Amino acid sequence: MKKGFAALMIALILLLGACTKEYWVMNKKDIKDEPAVRVFVEYLQEEKPERRGFKVIDISQGKSMVVVSTGTPAKELEVVDVDIQDDQTIVTVKEIDAESDEVNPYILIGLERKNGSMLVKNEDGEEYEIGF
Q1: What is the largest CA-CA distance in the chain?
Q2: Number of other residues whose CB lies within 10 A of the CB of residue 52
Q3: Residue 79 pLDDT > 50
Q4: Is residue 35 part of a domain?
Q5: Cα dihedral 123→125→130→132 (10° resolution)
Q6: Percent helix, strand, coil in the chain (nearest 5)?
Q7: Sign of the torsion formed by the C-alpha atoms of 82, 83, 89 and 91
Q8: Using CA atoms in the order 69, 72, 78, 79, what is the torsion angle rounded to 10 degrees?
Q9: pLDDT in tens, 20-60
Q10: What is the tally of structural domains in the chain?
């Protein structure tokens, strides 16, 4: 009985570990905790309100933050999926018609890890421009 229980617990732990998401969405209120991200978002809002694209910023603990902006206050973003492949990391976002209070609405997507090149696209397959 004890061997069966131990095997079940090990299998459960491995299963839960495999289900861990590779990404998270950072609360915009916490932007002060990542100065480089905060500076870039301020740049988007003040200098590049029409910019539709993304930028990857290295943050604490060896992780990365992907800042994706819509370029129009008429759209907001949600993460649909992050697919980490051998040679590429693909972030898929959903564009939602909405009137935002932000000049250039954005989303902050934290990555636990990334591989190779980065691609950000919407659900229709339209790619966001890299870098700024």
Answers
A1: 66
A2: 17
A3: yes
A4: yes
A5: -60
A6: 30, 40, 35
A7: negative
A8: -40
A9: 689 999 999 999 999 999 999 999 999 999 999 999 999 98
A10: 1
Q: Which residues pair with 69 in a beta bridge?
A: 53, 106
Domain range enclosing 32: 21-130
Q: DSSP characters for 53-71?
A: EEEEEE-GGG-EEEEEE-S
Q: In this structure, what DSSP letter does residue 127 have?
A: B
Please indicate, yes or no, if residue 97 is contained in any of the structural domains.
yes
Residues whose CB falls within 8 Å of the CB of residue 39, separated by 6 or more in sequence, listed in order: none
What's the rounded Cα separation, in Å, for the pair 69 and 52? 5
Residue 101 included in any domain: yes
Task: Identify whether the C-beta of residue 115 lies closer than 8 Å to the C-beta of residue 56.
Answer: no
Structure token digits, residue 68: 């994706």
Location of structure tokens 């339209």: 126
Residue with tokens 């915009």: 28
**Nearest CA-CA partner of 128 in 58, 55, 64:** 55
Is 107 within the bounds of a domain?
A: yes
- pLDDT for 62 equals 86
